[in-house]
Amino acid sequence: MKKLEARGKLLISSEYMVLHGSQALALPLKMGQSLEKTASENRSRFSWKAWYGEECWFSAEFDPVSLGILGSSDPKKAAHLQGLLRNVMEMKPLFQNELGKWDVDTRLDFSPAWGLGSSSTLTALLASWAGIDPMDLHFRISHGSGYDVACAMADSAIVYGLREDGPHARAVPFRPSFADQLYFVWLGSKQPTSAHLKKMSGRINPDTKEIHHFTAMTQGMLKARQLSEFRMFMEEHEARLSGLTGLERVSQTRFPGLQGSVKSLGAWGGDFVMLASEQDPEALYNYLDGLGLTTRFRYKELVYDA
């Protein structure tokens, strides 16, 4: 089997609100995860190793018949993978035959701590290997919107939404003329998405007008031709969502004196933020160095099809 690949993701708009029906703008990344299988030397064990660079950040061995965990570097991650594999086999029973034949190595292009889609790319990779629908697999195992799995398979920006008949992802052109003035910065901590979404679900109860307003802001960001216009939507989005969630804006908590605008991406309080600034890049990076924020990318370094 040839190497399978899936893309990482960033959610640019409608975080939280996408679960209530707002349309969201999401970007697939140049960084992602790959999966390769090699012929097993011991058919009584199914071996799984996950790599980031030269580091094996997770490993586990399973009984290929019962899927019992025979050993692992992280029992919690092993149990998650076990559940994922069991769901794959429920959808495609013949997939179990694969586990007696092969061992697996996965490789991340990004640190698993960054929150760029280690779980969603894994879902997409396993679905691709088994020949099943990755979105169907996602909704069997997760309460998330699924935009991240849609990004894993996308070749361009997407507008993503949940409708009564299911998820819809539409490819859209998004190559802003001001891309060189957009940056993505890691805040230094990973937000555990499923637990955070469960916690936040009781806080947000938007009405139809608010749902449509976030869709309108998504469309505004998508169509913006000037950085100033894009920044206006970023700041309005932050203000309105702060009001709905009761959470402080990241501009107030982490970026004092920033010459530009900043917007949370995905779950607030962790992972990446987006900066929009006309400041000289060297001066901006010196400012970020002073905040201890040293993991950052320019738009075209990170976004696929940029």
Describe this structure in words.
The chain is α+β, with helices and mostly antiparallel strands and about 300 residues long. It is built from 11 helices and 12 strands. The protein has helices spanning about 75-90, 95-100, 120-130, 135-140, 145-150, 195-200, 210-225, 225-245, 250-255, 280-290, 300; strands at about 5-10, 25-40, 45-50, 55-60, 70, 100-110, 160-165, 165-170, 180-185, 260-265, 270-275, 295-300. The strands form 2 sheets. Strands 1, 2, 3, 4, 5, 6, 7 and 8 form an 8-stranded mixed β-sheet that branches. A 4-stranded antiparallel β-sheet has the order 10-11-9-12. The longest helix is centred in the last third of the chain and has 19 residues, at about 225-245.
Q: Which percent bin holds the helix content?
A: 25-40%
Give the helix tally.
11
Oligomer kind = single chain
Largest sheet: 8 strands, mixed
The radius of gyration over CA amounts to 20 Å
Number of domains: 2
Structural class: alpha+beta
Overall, the morphology is: globular
CATH structural architecture of the largest domain: 2-Layer Sandwich
User: Spans of 5+ residues with little confidence (pLDDT < 50)?
Assistant: none
